[in-house]
Amino acid sequence: KQCELDFPIAKVRMLPFRQALAVAVVQIFILSENRALAKNINFYNVRPPLDPTPFPNSFKCFTCENARDNYNCNRWAEDKWCPQNTQYCLTVHHFTSHGRSTSITKKCASRNECHFVGCHHSRDSEHTECRSCCEGMICNVELPTNHTNAVFAVMHAQRTSGGSAPTLYLPVLAWLFVPLLL
Questions:
Q1: pLDDT band at 124 (very low <50, low <70, confident <90, very high)
Q2: What is the SS3 assignment for 32-89?
Q3: Which of 6, 37, 104, 141 is 20–30 Å from 127 (CA)?
Q4: Bridge-partner residues for 132, per DSSP?
C-alpha cells in the first residue's frame, strides 16, 4: 500500500515540472521564430499601412514640382498612391555651379521616363541637372547631386532558399511537442 501512495504523490510533484518545461519549450520556439523572421525584414523599405493599397505592388513617391529645396519638397509632398502605369520614383534636381538648388521636381514615373538618368551641365546657363530613378515605397528621399547618386536604382527580388521555410513550422512543432511533455 505504501507504493500505491508514493506513486500518485510523485506524479503530482512531476506535473509542475512538466508544465514549466512545456512553457520553456514553447518560449524557445517562439523566440527562435521571431529572430528568424526579424532578420528578413528590410528596414529601409518598410511599407507604412496608412491606407489600403489600390492595386497589387502599389507604391508612393515624394511628389513636388519646382520646389526650392529638398526639405520643402519632401515636407509638402502629396500623400497619394502612384498610378498603375508607373513603376518608379523620379527626381530631377537643378542647381548652380556653387551647389545651390534652383528647382526640384519629384514624381511617379514609368520606365521610359527613367532612361535619361545622370547629370548634365549646361554651359549656357551654368546650371546642372541631375536625374535619378528608384524603385520602392517613397524611395526618392534624397537628391541626386553627382554621377554617383544620379542613377537608376532598381531592387532585385531576393530568391528564398529552403533555409527559411522551417521557421514557419516552429509553432506547429511546438504544439505537437508540448502535449508529449504533459
A1: confident
A2: HHHHHHHCCCCCCCCCCCCCCCCCCCCCCCCCEEEECCHHHHHHCCCCCCCCCCCCEE
A3: 141
A4: 91
* HSE-up (13 A, CA, CB side) for residue 168: 5
String of DSSP letters for 95-127: EETTS-EEEEEEEEE-TGGGTT-EEEEETTTTE
Contact of 129 with 150, CB cutoff 8 Å: no
Any idea where the domains of the chain sit in the sequence? 2-40+167-181, 64-153
Whole-model pTM? 0.58
Q: 155 near 63, Cβ under 8 Å? A: no
CATH hierarchy code of domain 64-153? 2.10.60
pLDDT of residue 6: 54
Q: Which residue has the higher pLDDT, 45 or 59?
A: 59
pLDDT recorded at residue 153? 92
In sequence order, which residues have a C-beta less than 8 Å from that of residue 153 and are 6 or more positions away? 132, 133, 134, 135, 139
